[in-house]
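In the previous lecture we treated proteins in isolation. Real proteins rarely work alone, and many bind small molecules. This record shows how such a complex is specified: first the sequence, then the SMILES for S-adenosylmethionine.
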Amino acid sequence: MSIATAETREYTRMMWRKRLRDWRSPRLGLARVIGSVSLELFESQGDVHVDVLRHHGLIDAMAIYDLGCGCGRTAQALQRAGWQGSYTGADILAPLVRELRRTCPGYTALVNRNYTIIAPDDSLDMLFHWSVFTHLTPEQCMLYMRESFRALKPGGKLVFSFLELEDPAHRGIFQRRVKRIGANGREGVLDSFLHRDWIRFFAEECGFTAPEFTDGDDAAHHPAFWQSLVAMSKPAA
Ligand SMILES: C[S@@+](CC[C@H](N)C(=O)[O-])C[C@H]1O[C@@H](n2cnc3c(N)ncnc32)[C@H](O)[C@@H]1O
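The predicted 3D structure, ligand included, written as tokens:
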């Protein structure tokens, strides 16, 4: 069940490469590790995360879980927004978790290198993850979805982002990766794509309600997320 050390090593290598380039600004270095090229972007993306969560029912006093929380892009935005509740974030990389703890002292942040959700059965109102299944295999996604189902309360919600080749805006990531693998023979951190049908299948296997999808350019209910979004619920008891 433990996450392969080779995978963790690959992330750590990437992390130090990016952080070293930004040694004069450790905050920016960490923001770059999780994909924000500036601190302004880090904050505005976090604000969009909160808008998405609110659209999907986030209110005060909820128990929420941020899988692959990174250095706290969402946690810091929740704090800025004045949200009150029980937040737990988990990630495989200790330096990112330390940064979340430093910036959001009232929140719980954990290092977890197993395909588990660190929460009792039926205990969470909402579980979310942004740009995490984009780095995992479908099998790993399935393991986390099973665990998410277990940990959510009946009626609780799972919301996450993913990449799909059906979206022309996401194809560049795939094309650049093909080019790099062709040129170098290997590529570091995995960028992976899911199909909506696969997500429907995983949801059904776990017992979730039928997933509802939001296109990456859909700005009807919150600013466009760019990655595709999906939401599903654990059926109410
Ligand atoms: C692109 S970053 C996104 C971070 C955060 N979700 C955000 O949006 O700010 C992807 C995160 O997933 C974490 N990650 C990668 N593989 C993971 C795994 N198997 N379990 C949990 N987290 C993982 C990485 O360490 C990294 O922090």
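Summary for your notes: Residues 3, 11, 34-35, 67-70, 73-74, 91-93, 96, 129-132, 135-136 surround S-adenosylmethionine (CB under 6 Å). The domain at 5-233 is CATH 3.40.50.150 (Rossmann fold).
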